[in-house]
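re: ur question from earlier - yeah i can do the single chain one, its not a big deal. heres the input i used so u can compare w yours
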Amino acid sequence: MRTIFVIINPIAGVRPKDEIPKLVHQVMKPEDGFAIEIRFTEYAGHACELAKEAVERGFDTVVAIGGDGTINETGRSLVGSSVKFGIVPMGSGNGLARHLQLPLDLTKSLECIREGYSIKVDYGSVNGHIFFCTAGVGFDAQVSAKFAEAGSRGALTYLRCFGDLVTDYEPATYVIYTDDGRVKEKAFLIAIGNASQWGNNAYITPHASMSDGLFDVTLVKRAPLMDIPRMAFQLFTRELDQNPNVMSFRSSHLRIIMPHPNAVHVDGEPMQMDGVLDIEMHPGQLTVICPEHPTSSVLEPVRYAFEDIHYMIQGNLKKGVRQFSDFNRPVLERAENLLNPFFKRKSQAPDPDDGQEPMEEP
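and the output i got, formated as tokens:
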């Protein structure tokens, strides 16, 4: 009997979550040897607490259904244990899931967890804060901070935050200590990759591996405006390291000296840190379920993106209707109070057609 503890973030991404518990039970049935417990997160950090509870109670698999934040919270409670970690991506970028070539389709993701094939992967930490995919300082951390305050999720919101900052952001000078020495450079951003991408197939550290015990570091300098389209294209074609405005190197640990306390993102979650970042690699400390024979489809990410847009529009329409209704409710109530006496008097008036015979005039 496989015991599986499922953690669902009900507000991750833009997709509806109501039918997920039913689908989980359909894919992993008791008669097929599965014992399932499902819990929903209720606040930030709750996934971390639930995952710890699952480990203490002896579950052999913990599944996170949500975005990169939910996956990070769940995974950091499983590091160093023998518990298998299942990921069902439902966030905005799904960087870790895409790197591991996990299915983006909900049913296929659950079927992958049912199969149970797993590998050992590395994780990193920034001043003790765990990350599995990427961490960074500079422009991408500022975008993450703005995205966190945006009030809505999804790729379009992220692109809007990106566009709001890209023209005015000023690079800073950083000192980086690696296994091989010291680098001092003015950087637009510095990305530290345990996995290869931010999400949405944007390969910021295109050759990163989660099982080599090394970080891939991408330092992007301020590029001339005419070079930005080329860099954007290379970001999605896994060729960013070939751009002359980019420096790339590998190291098992890093120390980054920032000019002042600044925003840093850890798996997309922004946090304010002091001027020194100590970044450590922890090899092979997490067991992740993934496809034994991954298959890549060019159409699946495209379909997923269009579905995200559909759900976002649908959600915004529902939100707009609710807001319109809430705004106009006092007006409607006032109109009803004004009209009620009129309708009351009308209902009390004698009915001319009440079925009685008319009286004859003398």
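The CA atoms of residues 322 and 328 lie 10 Å apart. not sure if urs matches, ping me
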